User: Fold this.
Amino acid sequence: MSDTIKPGSNSTSSTVQENAIASGPDPGPDSSPDVSEPTTKPAGNSFMAPHLKPVRIKLLKVFVGMLLFISAYALGIFSIYWGAAYDRGSKLKNLRMLVVIEDEPVGNVQPVIGNSIRSVVQQPQVQRLGDWHIYSGQEFAKQAQKHNNTVEEEVARQIHHQEFWSSIYVRGNATYDYFQALQSANTSYNASGSIMSIYETGRDNMAMQSYVTPNVKSVEEMFLRLTASHIAPPLIQNLTESQQTALFKNDNATALVSTQFPFVFSDRRPFTDPVLIAPTQVGLIYLIILTFIQLNFFIPINMMMGAMKLKNAHYVIVKMLVSYVGYFILSLMYSLVSLAMQVDFTVAFGKSGFLVFWMSSFLTMCAVGGMNEIFFLICFATIPPFIGAWLLFWVITNVTPTFSPLALCAHFFRYGYAMPIHASYEISKVIFFDTYKGAMGRNYAILVIWNVLVVALLPFAAVFYKRRMAQKAMAERQKVVDEVQNGKIN
Assistant:
């Protein structure tokens, strides 16, 4: 018997549910493929898209312009450093050299040693090695008397006062002492000390080792080649026959007759500690870079000061105070490194040497760091890429005349005498090597002048930076407001 479906019963709904289960779950609107939905296009434009042609042309012009500027800048700035070393060989004649020949005639004995030195120094090939100033013993003794010195002491004094780079000093009676040794067949005769070269490596370690001392040694080599044929023979001719016979009967006569007279090199300010290369040379480069690092780290402080909306005078005072306190602490850290490496600070100023070096480093950091800050503020507010260009320019223009002997450079590089790093370099040599103190006043004056210049210019740069950054911030806010009003930003 068939079942009868009554209206209002649940049979109809059950049948619908069963059909739904049999047909599977409802895929829903997201599951069914929508053939009407457009395919997604790849993001971005092709670089060669036709509508980007004006932009490509502009990009190319900017690229070429920037590349030309950087190339010209590199060519110009590197030419300064390379130019300092250009053709130095032809400028060796600018090195002032002192020659004092105190060897003079005694009776019939002519000063063949002194005359040989004079002859060698006057040779054209030697003249190209320096500007040789030759004095006889009597001439130079007059200068020595003015300072109550012996001739040797006066030679050392003039070298110390940096009137000459190096010297050749022939002692008095050098020839006659050798003649007496031949006369008595004294085979224990010692020729060392007859000729001396007094110099100071501490004046300029690189220049002395690379140019000055090698040039003097070249003179020594030429002189020694002349010794065998020009010194002993004329002196032997002045001996009597019996003296000549006694001389040549001696088994050691050959060694005595062929005696050579090598120079005794006396370095009165030696460069003995390799660590000193750091505080006197390379460390000065790092000093410039360290001030630049401080500038970068203090950018958040500048931003906070700008947000405080200080008066211009207060803004400048606080900014300079922050910078100078930073230089004071960093210069101490810089000095403590040398102290930790057991560098001797007592050579010239005793126990005060460390304090002198610290304050000199502080003045130097204030000078180079102050100029860095001035140009940093100007460039950051106008053309930020110029910040790196300024730093490289500042390093090269300071370092080039400092670590190059200016006597061997073109006259253009004499500007280095006015640079703060050169002044600091000269002061450091006095501290560590006790070189001539006569120029310390001038070098400290140079550092002070640079600091005065910084103090005079930094307020203008700081106010310019403050106003320019405020203008940029205002322009940026106005741009956002305009975009909101135009509906570009919801």
Remarks:
- Residues 274-485 form one domain.
- The first strand starts at residue 96 and ends at 101.
